[in-house]
Amino acid sequence: MKRSFLLTLLIASVAHVAHAQMTSRPNPKDIEADIKKTQFDKFSERLRISYFGVFTSPTFYDMEKGNWDYAATSSKTSSFKGNRDSIPVNLFNQVSFNYNFGAKMNFVVNPRFSLWFARPKDSTQNIDNSTVQLEDMLVGFQGVVYASDDKKFNLWIRPGVRLPTSRASRDSGNAGFGTISQQLELGANPTYDFNKKWQIAAFTQWRTWIFEDRYNYSRLRFYTAPYIQYTIDDTTRLQLWYENFYENNKRWKTINKSKTGKQDPLFQDLWQDVYFGVSKDVTPKLNLFPFIGCFIDNAPISNKSFYIGGWISYQIK
User: Fold this and answer.
1) Under 8 Å CB-to-CB from 2, ≥6 apart: which residues?
2) For the whole model, what pTM was predicted?
């Protein structure tokens, strides 16, 4: 009886050790899953996703009249008077996928779309009339390429190209062409911090439109927006901006030959305005920037010159 008990105990012990070894041995499928998970984690750690939205109201004059059909945009060459754009009031949206692959600048893909708040049929342009309007998608690189030793001066740049998405361009149909339109651009933002309170900076952009196979200056824009920032505390900043759009005013005449021949580019101010607002970090991820703006290229200044707007940015990941 005793010998039988010892034999049973020995067999049970050997079986327990064997089972333990088998259960502790890693499954090849689990190893492969762990490797894939690690690779995905490395990719995810380098990826940042954010949202940015812009709203621009009609002018005070239009709002007083109850006209919310057109956003406020000043253009001396436009047939719309009173600082009106040719599209309805809308919220412009951008989702940015920013991937750091270890270089000086990150790779970015920025899909863009607009939500129209007025009747789409109010648009005077030959585009698809939909509440959700897909815009051109920007693909490029961005990052700080230079920083001074004291970290007070920084230079951020973003070379890129805007690719057509659901449609060729808002300019499709103009002058009988434009069904394919790429837009090359170079953005730059130098900043200088005098101290912890005061900063001066300027966002600049060079942008050219390429219509089909026409590589010329038919539409070339220089955008300059210097601004001053005053920091109140860790979450609140005051900002004063000045905007200047400088663009070829002979867009289609530059391409299309007329009886007088091809027109040389004529660069003029498209519009100028100033706006003042408060940048507020509502949460560590959410920032709101409401502002009031005024077009200063139209005299005299009146309620047709003022409008309100806002930026919203949210760090998704």
Assistant:
1) none
2) 0.75
Q: How do residues 47-71 score in pLDDT, each as one tens digit?
A: 999 999 999 888 898 888 888 778 8
Residue indicated by tokens 């239009």: 62
DSSP string covering 285-315: SEEEEEEEEEE-SSSS--TTTEEEEEEEEEE
Instruction: Name beta bridge partners: 316.
Output: none
Tokens of 173: 């149909």
Of residues 199, 242, 238, 247, the one with CA closest to residue 224: 242
Determine the residue type at 213: D
The DSSP symbol for 65 reads: T
Q: Which amino acid appears at position 3 of this protein?
A: R
Whether 281 and 290 have beta carbons less than 8 Å apart is answered as: no
Summarised one tens digit per residue, pLDDT across range 248-262 is 766 555 555 554 555
Distance CA 140, CA 130 (A): 28
CATH number attached to the domain at 48-315: 2.40.160.40
How far apart, in whole angstroms, are the C-alpha atoms of residue 63 and residue 94? 26
Indicate the SS3 state at residue 128.
coil
| Neighbouring C-beta atoms of residue 162, cutoff 10 Å | 21
Q: Which two tokens stand for residue 56?
A: 């621009």
Distance CA 197, CA 230 (A): 5
SS3 (DSSP) at 40: helix
